[in-house]
Amino acid sequence: MTRKNPQSPDHAIHMSASEVAAALKAGTFSAEEVIDVHIRHIQNVNPALNALVIPMFDEARAQARKANEARARGEPLGALHGVPVTIKEQYKVRGTQTTLGATNKIGNVYDDEGPLVTRLRAEGAIILGKTNIVQTLLGHESDNRVYGRTNNPWNLERSPGGSSGGDAATVASGGAPLALASDLGGSIRIPAHSCGVHGFKPTTGRLTNDDFPGELLGYGQEAILPQPGPIARTVADLSLAMGVFAKTSMNSTLDNVPPVPWTDPATIPVAGMRIGYYTDNGLFSVSPALRRAVEEAAGALRSMGAETLPVAAPDPVEGLRIFLGVMTAGGDAQMKSLLGREKPVPQIAAAVKGMGTPRLMLAMVARLMAARGQHHNARVIGNMGALKTADYWRLVEARTDYRVGFQSALDAAGLDAVICPPHALPAVTHGASEHLFPAVSYAFTYNVLGAPAGVVSTTRVRPGEETDRKPGKDIADITAQQVERGSAGLPVGVQVVARHWHDHVALAVMAALEAHFSKTEEYPIQPNLPAIG
Q: How far apart are CA 69 and CA 393, in angstroms?
């Protein structure tokens, strides 16, 4: 993408949220100019991406006029004054529908907004629209029958990830510098990794979930909670957004988020930290480029004065057992209520079917699949299905033990943070995620653990390092190798995890890695979409 004159409003699509806000406050551009250039850019690239699915352009232009008038009157301006943002479709935004990609919920319009969207508006952010998701939010692509499929801006034949893929694709392509997303099993971090941008999932319970209309898919369980979080092109913007979002919990919220003060990550030195790293969790092997990215990240942190050491990953088999057990413990009643008579899209069809199948039958199917060499998906199927109350309580107890074990391991090694892959593969080809749930174990492990985790984009897959995988009969391994072929040039991220409530430490490490990798030739920049002139 050709760089524009920094003094021209056209340059705004290359700027960070922090830079846009500073330029608007200084009068370099007007808010109307910035919003107009982003709208024109979205209209140019979105036909190829299908990322922003509910445009709010008229309202955005009206808000931009008000932002200009406020500045002219000398009023105090918010931290995000005039900054264009997008919002994931699952959140309530006044006057727009929230469907979770279910045709049964078309026209489900809300007239109220939650604390996070309200805070964004109060800080001067201007909402350009809502972005695409996967049907029911329970998959790692972004495809549904309400809005269609979202494509990856680096390669239209690849998925941007999910379920926050619309946000990541929009940010990566220059449509907005900042987005409000969410993460229940990697739904911020996987799209950030897939699209060459940065994303952050806070500590479980750090931010309110009041923006999400729980009646659409409210399981009532609190064993593994989703977390709202930002996607952006700079780590500084992630920190800026988290500082804004954290203000929502300084007073009581409906979901009783504790009023933990926010610490500025910019005040946290990496030198002197002790950071563990692993390149393989022992459940599903990673692509060569992801291994290289983690190893280079560890070396970079050592050069900055941190001590790094190899560590074992949290037990991925136990993490998978707990995650799938919790997510399917209630059976399929909620899915039936959401989808009505609509069939699930192929990427989540097996998961939805598993929710409604008795556990005894699932166990039989799992044994049969394992006997046929389908070990990965046998493990998935064998851990799904509705649970009796006592069994669910035991699963919650196992989750707590899992978290205690993780904390004990950090204490024993004296670790401040851990770095690892965010996923086993670069951006997957459309539809491939149907067979690749074990590859997501690098992400959902930290939802089970509830630890803060972010993804910083670092490098790209080099020609010749696409794959060294030697698959047998297992469909997951075969699909992984197919995804790896032709992946040269795709972006690669590194995941950074910190101790609970030490979100600022994770962001500080991410910022240090961003500073290092941004000096390399392979550092991801905005992709050259075919739709961009």
A: 56
Element of type H or E holding 49 = helix 31-49
Decide: 217 and 334 in contact? Cβ < 8 Å. Answer: yes
Taken in order 160, 163, 167, 171, the sign of the CA dihedral is negative
Look at strands 178-183 and 227-232 and give their pairing. Answer: antiparallel
- Supply the pLDDT for residue 8: 83
Bridge partners for 275 per DSSP: 308, 417
Q: Quick one: which of 229, 187, 185 has its CA closest to 205?
A: 229
Residues 514, 456 contacting (CB under 8 angstroms): yes
d(CA 120, CA 122): 5
Cβ neighbours around 22 below 10 Å, total: 13
Q: Check: CB of residue 61 under 8 Å from CB of residue 36.
A: yes
Element (H, E) at 291: helix 288-303
Q: Is 427 left (phi over 0), alpha (psi -120 to 50) or beta?
A: beta
**Greater confidence, 460 or 527?**
460
Phi, psi of 451 (to 5 degrees): -85, 150
Sequence-ordered list of residues with C-beta below 8 angstroms from that of 86, at least 6 positions apart, any chain: 52, 127, 128, 129, 130, 131, 166, 167, 170, 171, 175, 176, 178, 179, 180
User: Can you give 210-272 as a three-state secondary structure string?
Assistant: CCCCHHHHCCCCCCCCCEEEEEECCHHHHHHHHHHHHHHHCCCCCCCCCCCCCCCHHHCCCCC
Q: Which of 164, 174, 155, 135 is nearest to 46 (CA)?
A: 174
**What pLDDT score does 2 carry?**
41
Q: Annotated catalytic residue: which of 164, 173, 187, 441?
A: 187
pLDDT classification of 501: cutoffs 50, 70, 90: very high
249 is annotated as an active-site residue? no
Closest CA to 369 of 360, 361, 359, 379: 379
Q: How many C-beta atoms lie closer than 10 Å to residue 370's C-beta? A: 16
Residues 339-380: tens digit of each pLDDT: 999 999 999 999 999 999 999 999 999 999 999 999 999 999
DSSP label at 307? E
* Contact by Cβ (8 Å): 438, 476: yes
- Global pTM value: 0.97
Which one of 159, 163, 249, 433 is the catalytic residue?
A: 163
CA distance 347 to 353: 12
Active site residue 163: yes
Active-site residue flag, 187: yes
Q: For residue 363, what is the enclosing H or E element? A: helix 359-371
CA distances to 200, 223, 280, 311, 353 from 292, in Å:
22, 34, 11, 16, 37
Catalytic residue among 16, 30, 88, 92: 88
Q: What pLDDT, in 10s, does the model give residues 65-83?
A: 999 999 999 999 999 999 9
Over range 182-207, report the average pLDDT.
98
